[in-house]
Q: What sequence folds into this?
């Protein structure tokens, strides 16, 4: 039996220890905010925090999580008021929304770790998460806003123009 904390609640998993964390979260705990995208850690839709670090739930076997602290999008903020979540809403980041839980979890780890973030920081950390709709300029602006670097309309316009040129 594997004992772990999920969103601050002690849990005990008594199944096949090779079961990916993603399926335990979704199928057994009903925490469906964490999405299945690829199953091979190539897209980031399944990003959660394990002991404070962003991790891919689709490839993490529950058996290695004895004593771990797991946080999903549902546990990021009880009221949905984490600075990243607020910035996401303020800037209308989501389009289809499928990747957003993973994007937010990855961005929250970045913002929680550093007082300020640079474009290079964002590129390095967020490259693990794919957005099929291409909302990268809004993602960048939201991360900057959440990190306390208020992304003005002009800054966001510059990010949009830069992305369109690539």
A:
């Amino acid at each position: 039996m594997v004992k772990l904390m999920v969103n601050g609640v002690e849990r005990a998993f008594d199944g096949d220890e090779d079961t990916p964390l993603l399926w335990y979260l979704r199928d057994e705990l009903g925490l469906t905010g964490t999405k299945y995208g690829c199953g091979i850690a190539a897209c980031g839709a399944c990003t959660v925090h394990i002991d404070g670090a962003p991790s891919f739930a689709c490839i993490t076997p529950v058996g290695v999580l004895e004593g771990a602290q797991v946080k999903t999008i549902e546990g990021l903020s009880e009221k949905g008021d984490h600075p990243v979540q607020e910035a996401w809403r303020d800037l209308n980041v989501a389009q289809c929304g499928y990747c957003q839980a993973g994007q937010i979890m990855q961005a929250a780890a970045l913002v929680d770790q550093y007082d300020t973030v640079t474009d290079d920081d964002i590129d390095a950390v967020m490259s693990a998460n794919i957005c099929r709709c291409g909302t990268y300029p809004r993602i960048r602006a939201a991360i900057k806003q959440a990190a306390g670097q208020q992304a003005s309309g002009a800054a966001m316009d510059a990010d949009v123009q830069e992305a369109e040129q690539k």
Residues 5 and 69 are 5 Å apart (CA to CA).
